[in-house]
Write a structure and sequence with these properties.
immunoglobulin domain; Immunoglobulin-like; six-stranded antiparallel beta sheet; 4% helix; five-stranded antiparallel beta sheet; 4 domains; 43% strand; Ig/MHC_CS; mainly beta; Ig-like_dom_sf; Ig-like domain-containing protein; Ig_C1-set
């Protein structure tokens, strides 16, 4: 069964008035229900309310649940008694039972059902005309259709809200974080969605889908998407998707944020963020950002900048913010020139904190240069040959070298890689050498052999070089 509530008031038009009955009116309009002879006629024109009541019924292959449309008299229609009605339509098979809660039997008229020749389904109209109506009194309408009854409930269902995130790139090449809010399992379909940044409204621009019916259920789902900059994300700001569902009187939320584990000094993380392409090539005002996250306190904190070439740097005032989890995030911004950036100038951010045993340092990454050398001709008389991969000029020191043979990973015990070493006594970059022994027979079969290098300074985070025996050699 399903229900609809209609409030009655003497001398008022009831429900939600719809001017111009349109395709859902009847009695000489498009639906064309003819009242039976000898029975009272419905009021002159009826209109459909904008939101049909959900049926919460379960159709089968040979049955279809009814849909309810509360009806109201149209603009200017005069009635001698308060009147309310409901169109019950689209059901199969017959019959349905209509009950008006709180009404006397003499105040209720249920018109006989007729069958729509186009769809083969039935429809009828149930009318209530109280002899004496108390203003504001409510009458509950219940329609039972035994062949398709699944759950007798017409109460609103609040939404469930979940926020997920993923890294993406904007049209300018700046790294962004996409936030997606999934709003599911609610009815009726109207919801209000907004995004908050640390509890503040109006800071994000979002796109959202219209609520869509869930397959096999009487509920709806929707999504909302927005993008935030990597700077705001790494600062640990909290992004909230807030959904207001007026029908159920609920406000539901879910949150997303970049976070570390329990705060402690050895979990402080330092980032140096490069200039955006817009600032670098369009505005010609590039800026570097040093971001320290997960600071356990703001006491005795110092952030400084340095560079390899002579000259000082003038950073902006330190931006220090407390996060929801009690940690602090510090951001230091410094202006540089496009020429310095293009020339490969190295800038270093240093953080001093009372809980750190030694300062933390972070610089702009330098990608490695990779060269792969085939076996030396003097080796060709031996049964085992040596492939050598030289990786140099990279910063920071973390690097990974992996060998592949015939597109398959080579086990680590089959090659040797030196620890990272400074490129020179005064150098700030590093190098490693990796060598792998291969059987002469494998080399002569043509390989190929690949040296793959992973480093954060590389645009794709990895690069590779390939070598194989040339024909005739």
């Amino acid at each position: 069964s399903c229900g609809a509530g209609i409030a009655v008031g003497q001398g008022e038009l009831w429900g939600r008035e719809i001017c111009g009955a349109g395709p859902f009116s009847f009695l000489g309009v498009s639906v064309g229900l003819d009242p039976p002879v000898g029975r009272p006629s419905p009021p002159p024109l009826w209109g459909r309310t904008s939101n049909p009541s959900p049926s919460f019924l379960c159709p089968t292959a040979s049955s279809s649940p009814p849909t309810l449309f509360p009806l109201t008299t149209c603009c200017g229609a005069a009635t001698s008694r308060p009147t309310a009605a409901c169109l019950v339509t689209g059901y199969l098979p017959e019959p349905v039972t209509v009950t008006w809660g709180g009404a006397s039997p003499g105040d209720v008229i249920t018109y006989p059902a007729n069958r729509d020749p186009a769809t083969g389904r039935y429809r009828l109209v149930a009318q209530l005309r109280p002899t004496e109506a108390t203003p504001g009194r409510s009458y509950g309408l219940t329609v039972a259709h035994p062949p398709t009854v699944c759950e007798a409930s017409s109460r609103p269902i609040p939404p469930e809200v979940q926020v997920f995130h993923a890294t993406t790139c904007s049209s300018t090449g700046e790294e962004m974080v996409e936030l997606v809010c999934f709003i599911t399992g609610f009815t009726p379909a109207t919801v209000e969605i907004e995004w908050l940044v640390d509890g503040v409204r109006g800071l994000l621009v979002a796109t959202q889908t219209s609520p869509c019916p869930d397959e096999g259920a009487n509920t709806y789902s929707a999504t909302s998407r927005t993008n935030v900059s990597s700077v705001d994300w790494l600062e640990g700001k909290t992004f909230t998707c807030q959904v207001k569902h007026l029908a159920s009187g609920t406000i539901m939320q879910d949150h997303a944020r970049f976070c570390q584990d329990t705060p402690s000094a050895n979990r402080i993380v330092l980032y140096v963020l490069p200039p955006t392409l817009v600032d670098l090539y369009i505005n010609h005002e590039p800026k570097l950002r040093c971001l320290a996250t997960n600071l356990p306190s703001d006491s005795d904190l110092q952030v400084s900048w340095s560079k390899e070439t002579p000259g000082g740097l003038q950073p902006d005032l330190l931006d220090l913010r407390e996060q929801f989890n009690g940690t602090f995030t510090a951001t230091s911004t410094v202006a540089i020139s496009s020429q310095q950036w293009e020339a490969g100038e190295r800038f270093t951010c240093t953080v001093h904190h009372r809980d750190l045993p030694t300062p933390l340092h972070r610089s702009k990454p330098s990608p490695p240069h990779v060269y792969l050398f085939a076996p030396h001709p003097d080796e060709m008389s031996q049964d085992t040959l040596t492939l050598t991969c030289l990786v140099y000029g990279f910063y920071p020191v973390d690097v990974q070298v992996q060998w592949l043979k015939n597109h398959q990973n080579v086990p680590e015990e089959d090659y040797v890689t030196t620890p990272p070493l400074k490129d020179g006594p005064k150098g700030s970059t590093f190098f490693v050498v990796s060598k792998m022994a291969v059987a002469k027979a494998d080399w002569e079969r043509g390989g190929p052999f690949v040296c793959m290098v992973l480093h954060e300074g590389l645009s794709m985070k990895f690069t590779q070089r390939q070598v194989q025996r040339s024909p005739g050699n």
